[in-house]
Amino acid sequence: MSTSNEYENETVLITGGAGCIGSNLSRKIAELGAERVIILDNLSSAYTWNIPSNDNIEFIKGDILDDASLKRVFKEKPDYVFHLAAHFANQNSVDNPEKDLMVNGIGILKVLEYANLVGVKRFVYSSSGCGVYGLDSKMPFEEHDISIKLHTPYQVTKLLGELYTNYFHNLYDLPIVNARFFNVFGPGEVPGRYRNVIPNFFYWAMTGNPLPITGDGSETRDWTYVEDIVDGLLQMGIKEEAIGEAINLGSAKDHRVIDMANTVNELTGNAEGIKFAPRRNWDAKTKLLSSINKAETILDYKPQMTFKKGLERTYQWFTENWENIEKNAEFDSKQPKKIKLRQKISSNKSINCLRV
Ligand SMILES: NC(=O)c1ccc[n+]([C@@H]2O[C@H](COP(=O)([O-])OP(=O)(O)OC[C@H]3O[C@@H](n4cnc5c(N)ncnc54)[C@H](O)[C@@H]3O)[C@@H](O)[C@H]2O)c1
Asked: What is the pTM of this model?
């Protein structure tokens, strides 16, 4: 996919820009020559060491629920808004449903109100494939086939976000796009109890623990490398045909959890294997797979990264940032035993990971 340089000399606001996807997107837009990339992030699940240091990136620590912070960033009259800030994700929302509604519901409403007030060229919202498709949606998921039979507050509020963006588009002509991400992974995501499975598996593996699969490992996911997501987002910001649309950004390939776990153990040289735990009660969708036909047509979207290579890149980022990752990774009472990262890990070492 060709990356257009319409961002040159523009001002871009990225809420949640210190997070996993946001930090990668901020860096890319800064490199494309934006005048300014303004990151608004309250650092609730992000860290300053993970914010790109480009000269044209300005980090403002602030909350999307706080009017003073919103006035501060919208005073700069951003041309583009990428709204990525969110209370993340499913388990966190089950544990903290009201907080989830505040940030993902009232939060997006406020950001939309300000964006509408100042007038922006594009408002791109980070929705979720896991959020808006349900057991009654047909796989591979196509954009029209959403569900209202959802299983977590996070899924409810990610869908709510789309309803709000659509409302602003329908009533005020705000040029919005709803980006439906599928299982994003890659450099930039620090592990933790509410984080995604891939960074968490690297963490368990690098601290010498068995990888905990909740289920039997035959579950599949449509893991999508963060750089492919960034490419899709950039196109959503500029393609006219994307306005008012919801568009999947996935890899359109499914992989089994157990195969991913084995690859992580191989890459890290972790000999502790895998352990199985019961599936989480909200984790009803055992398989996820996107259709990316619409993204291909409207955005010229074509994911570039193979899953294996993406995992290798993720592991490389883990090794390069291990000191910070180890310091910041937070888990609950079942804290893994921490062992020192092996000084030398042979990335090609092949071991039998299945010890259960
Ligand atoms: N990672 C995925 O697999 C995935 C899948 C589907 C959708 N999404 C969506 O994409 C977006 C980015 O995801 P991510 O993986 O980078 O998550 P992330 O948690 O790394 O990023 C979210 C960022 O928002 C910030 N934030 C949270 N509450 C805030 C608030 N009240 N005010 C200001 N900042 C706040 C956090 O500190 C964090 O930096 C989210 O909206 C998420 O729901 C992610």
From this structure: 0.94
CB 23 within 8 A of CB 45: no
What integer pLDDT is reported at residue 193 of this predicted model?
95
In a domain, 84, yes or no: yes
Q: How far is the CA of 44 from the centre of ligand 1 (A)?
A: 9
Q: What is the pLDDT of residue 272?
A: 98
Say whether pLDDT at 353 is over 70.
no
pLDDT digits (tens, 9 = 90+) for 181-201: 999 999 999 999 999 999 999
CATH code of the domain in which 23 resides:
3.40.50.720
* Host H or E run for residue 256: strand 255-256
88 lines ligand 1 (CB under 6 A): yes
Residue ID of nearest Cα to ligand 1 atom 39: 19
The number of C-alpha atoms within 13 Å of 77 and in the hemisphere containing its C-beta is 2
> Does ligand 1 lie within 6 Å of residue 104's CB atom?
no
43: burial class by Cβ within 10 Å (0-12, 13-18, 19+)?
middle
**Tokens of residue 21, six digits:** 């996807």
Mean pLDDT of 310-336: 90
Give the containing element (helix H, strand E) for 263.
Answer: helix 257-268
* Parallel, antiparallel or unpaired: strands 184-185 and 224-225: parallel
| Inter-residue contact 161 to 104 (CB < 8 Å) | yes
**E strand or H helix at 274:** strand 274-277
Q: What percent of the chain has pLDDT over 90?
A: 89
Q: Residue 270: inside a domain, yes or no?
A: no
Buried b vs exposed e over 4-16: b needs ≥16 C-beta within 10 Å?
Answer: eebbeebbbbbbb
* Any atom of ligand 1 within 6 Å of the Cβ of 21: yes
Number of separate domains in the chain: 1
Q: Retrieve residue 167's tokens.
A: 């409302």
Q: What is the DSSP letter of 35?
A: S
3-state secondary structure of 92: helix
Residues spanned by the domain of 118 = 11-185+223-249
d(C-alpha 226, C-alpha 184), whole Å: 6
| Straight-line distance from the first to the last Cα atom of the chain, in angstroms, rounded to the nearest whole number | 43
Rounded Cα gap, residues 322 and 161, in angstroms = 34
